[in-house]
Protein: Prephenate dehydratase
Amino acid sequence: MPYSVGYLGPKGTFTQKAVDALFPEQAAVSYQTIPACIDAVKQGHVRYSVVPLENTLEGTVNLTLDYLINEKSLKIVSELVVPVEQHFMVHPNHRERWTEMEKVYSHPHALAQCHHFLNNQMRDAVVETYASTGAAAKYVSENPDLEIAAIANDQAAKEYNLEIVKANIHDFVNNETRFIVLSKNGAELRMNGLVMEGFKTKVMISLPTDHAGALHQVLSAFAWRRINLSKIESRPMKTGLGRYYFLIDIDQKMDDILIPNTIAEIEAIGCHVELLGSYPHYSIKQKP
Ligand SMILES: O=C(O)C(=O)C[C@]1(C(=O)O)C=C[C@@H](O)C=C1
Structure:
């Protein structure tokens, strides 16, 4: 049955690459911001939404995580890692004079992935953030008279008829972004055309105040059961200085005994535990 999928647009974003790989046959609906994508699935305008969660060079996309923490009605149902290659592009009129562009636009994460290039080759240009790489490329194509450039991917260059004047300007190779699929119905989502690499379960834990060694006890509840964790990070609760949520990725699927018993042990210390999703993960490999 056809359905629609929300993503951080417009056309030509890295999120669109993730959507094309995950949902090649469904209608993709573009939203201008990550919160708009999350609201669209929450309000039932789309069945799923795809948003970026983490990048190799820049780390967590805090906006996504902070929204997710507060959206109790949504769950992560799938995950896809996509290679990220950033290119410097201008309107074809400026092809010969690209080093003289006055402004460079892109998503903050994309700009942060290209520090060396910007510092060495575009030192005098003003760097300005845009809601997405695709939106930056679109703006550059719509303003051929301005001396401006965008950092975006090859699909954006094609979509908006821009010229890539410097390819692969990201600071380090193996640049990848992890995207998650959100839905109201928390059922795991397996993708047909992709090879599944494993399962994850993401939980969010808040510790009791004034409980010495609480985090140690949380981690040991996983450790003595030999449950592998692949990530632990903290985000502010935004209720007072020094108050943080801990987000933990468990390297296996939710089961009937092991993970529920671990959660019960953690809750017995006075922690609050919330399940953000138990889902398969996939990746698109880097080109050799
Ligand atoms: O702007 C885009 O193209 C996005 O899909 C967002 C995003 C991000 O938020 O990290 C995704 C991948 C790249 O790392 C740069 C930007």
